[in-house]
Amino acid sequence: MTNPMIAGLLLAAGGGRRLGGRPKALLDHQGRPLVEHAVRVLREGGCTRVHVVLGADADVVRAKASLPGCVLIDNPDWSEGMGSSLRAGLASLRDNEAEADAALVSLVDQPGIGPEAIARVYAAHRSPATLAAAAYDGERGHPVLFGADHWPGIAASAVGDRGARAYLKEHAGEITLVECGDVARAYDIDTPADLIHLDRANPRMNRMNQE
User: Fold this and answer.
1) Long-range contacts of range 152-155, CB-CB < 8 Å, 24 or more positions apart?
2) Do 45 and 178 contact (CB within 8 A), yes or no?
3) With 0-12 CB in 10 A as exposed, 13-18 as middle and 19+ as buried, what is 134?
4) Residue 71 and residue 96: Cα distance in Å, rounded?
5) Would you give per-residue pLDDT tens digits along the chain (211 residues)?
6) How far is residue 53's CA from residue 59's CA, in Å, rounded to a whole number?
7) What's the rounded Cα separation, in Å, for the pair 13 and 52?
8) Do 106 and 11 touch, CB atoms closer than 8 A?
9) Burial, 96: exposed, middle or buried (Cβ in 10 Å; 0-12, 13-18, 19+)?
10) Taken in order 33, 38, 40, 43, is the CA torsion positive or negative?
């Protein structure tokens, strides 16, 4: 396709239950809310349009985080799990006046995934039928690119914390895996022990921000 519209879709609704109830979007990363970093990564990876799904303490996130130009979606059902946020995000993309050809989905709690990985998965887009995902030593991970043809099926199957896993398993043969293990680290910030990774994430980006 010529100049496809690939929108970034950031899932940032989690309440951080295993972090003592600290919403992940508000975790401190380089002195700013983590959600700002995640949006910047999507933009530097090629997504000029970014939709952000908020949930836990959404009003606080809106007040504390600088997210100019983003479409912010409140998910009142965020406590049901990632599936509800994915459905809300895809609905927002579908209902937006500027229709997108694909959604490039990333998670707010994976700061080790930088713009290089986003750009590689972005480049795998071929048509609205594309399914692509980053791989780490051959294992599928995030970010994931969903061509618009797949959105109805993904939304129908996205329940609980499974997100799109059931749909991707069913369509495993259609997924283009894009190796990103050499440019990203796919850990999650789930527990207090994981917080040590925050300011150490993406050394290249840290250097750029200091220049």
Assistant:
1) 154/86, 154/90, 155/86, 155/87, 155/90, 155/91
2) no
3) buried
4) 10
5) 567 899 999 999 998 888 887 899 999 998 999 999 999 999 999 999 999 999 999 999 999 999 999 999 999 999 999 999 999 999 999 987 678 999 999 999 999 999 999 999 999 999 999 999 999 999 999 999 999 999 999 999 998 887 899 999 999 999 999 999 999 999 999 888 888 888 765 544 343 333 3
6) 12
7) 9
8) yes
9) middle
10) negative
Which tokens is 148 given? 């618009």
**C-alpha to C-alpha distances, 110 to 104, 149, 152, 204, nearest whole angstrom:** 14, 27, 26, 16
Which class for 61: exposed (0-12), middle (13-18), buried (19 or more C-beta within 10 A)?
buried
pTM for this one? 0.91
